[in-house]
Amino acid sequence: MLTVISKTIIFISSYIPLYIILFVQYCDFSKNLLKQPLLVTLLSIIILSFFMLILFIKYISSTNNIIKTIEVRNVKKLKESNLTYLLSNIIPLIAFNFTNKQQIISFLIIFFVLLLMYVKYSLITYNPTTELLGYTNYSAELYKNDKKVRDTTILSKCKFIHQNTYNNVKSIELDSDLFFVTKIIED
User: Fold this and answer.
1) pLDDT tens, 85-107?
2) What are phi and psi for residue 63, nearest 5 degrees?
3) Residue 42, C-beta contacts closer than 8 angstroms, at least 6 positions apart
4) Type and span of the H or E element at 40
């Protein structure tokens, strides 16, 4: 199961594209980078966020985690998740002016509220950074002994070709509604 720390790491990493946009937007390329505190902070956040996400993915992919074989059916690619993320989170946040203290405080308040919602509702599938790293979100049904157990979301680099076929997969249960699929087992 994902901890609050794990969900927070994933949340912060989901904003790497925003941090990069802000870096470019506020960078004065004619000045020394080290004399621009906002940019040093953003660059540090970008590097740290990316590093923490990579460590998290390596951790959940390691053989120390419990890997179980499950049967998934009716796998469908979730296309709207990142679009929803972009429209509801990134675009409004770009409107802030980070040279104004009141707007920075407003941004931090909104960012904290989004973090609380993200962690509380396990919205970790809304992460364009994992998409850029080659992971895809799928919706699927889990079965055991030909009986449907539940609907779930899958995060995986594996490609599910046919949505109506049965797939036995090796997976790690990250949360009650999220599985990290490490391998599709060929019959």
Assistant:
1) 666 666 666 778 888 889 888 88
2) -75, -10
3) 19, 22, 23, 26
4) helix 37-61
